[in-house]
Amino acid sequence: MKFTATQRSVQGTSASRRLRRAGRVPAIVYGGTEQPANIELDHNEIFHALRKEAFHASILDMDLEGKTQQVLLRAVQWHPYKPQVLHVDFQRVAASEAITTKVPLHFVNGETSPAVKLGGAVITHVLTELEIHCLPKDLPTGIEVDLANLEAGATVHLNDITLPAGVTFVPQGAETNPALATALVRGPAASGGEEGGDEGGEEAAE
Which of 20, 93, 119, 150 is within CB 3.0–4.6 Å of 113 for a Cys-Cys bond? Predict the structure, then answer.
């Protein structure tokens, strides 16, 4: 994905306010062998780009004064109640240097899984994204979690899926095999069916 940026010659709170009133967004790009650069973006362009999931988990081509640089979106500051982008941070990336970033999880086939079709379970997504480490060329826009074989009451962990080639999971603390999704049984089915009897079913329904 590609976006356009221009050099920002003025800095400070007042200058940033003037930029925003003019439909521009102050931003910064850092990393690599170059010094951090203050840049500005067109608000409408970056606003619509940020609504696309791939913009948050892809190597981006930034056109800065006619020169293309590969960058990764690192942070976005939004107005607390207006649909307005206040500031954006980008990091330069090099093809030979591995990066650490978060990518979204894409859950598929949950509605046709035994947990839902046969067990009447409700699937809960425990995580919605994973922090990973990889070379820029191996960065996926998302990681698929296939729930086709998920049974009622079961949980899908990280070890149950296959990460894309060249991608490794970055553990958070001591957790090396986090739960990704679980199928929770609610209502009478949770009481154990016929073994629970009518009374158990009524209690579960309550």
Answer: 150
d(CA 64, CA 8): 11
Cα dihedral across residues 42, 45, 65, 59: positive or negative? positive
Laid out side by side, the sheet with 155-157 consists of 121-125, 179-185, 155-157
Rounded to 5°, the CA angle 98-103-106 comes to 140
> pTM of this prediction?
0.81
| HEC string for 54-69 | HHHCCCEEEEECCEEE
- For residue 60, give the nearest of 20, 19, 89, 96 by alpha carbon: 89
The residue whose two tokens read 């060249």 is 166
- Per residue in 104-142, pLDDT tens? 999 999 999 999 999 899 999 999 999 999 999 999 999
